């Protein structure tokens, strides 16, 4: 691996984490609108 390859790999991992965090924020926003007594099953 070259230094450039390593930097690219690390930046890709960071981007994946940021994308996952964004998805979690959207999910959290949806969950806040669920009524307190809501039963899924």
From TrEMBL:
This is Uncharacterized protein. The lineage of its organism: Eukaryota, Fungi, Dikarya, Basidiomycota, Pucciniomycotina.
């Amino acid at each position: 691996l070259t230094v450039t390859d390593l930097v690219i790999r690390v930046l890709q991992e960071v981007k994946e984490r940021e994308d996952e965090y964004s998805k979690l924020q959207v999910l959290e926003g949806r969950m806040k609108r669920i009524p307190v007594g809501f039963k899924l099953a």
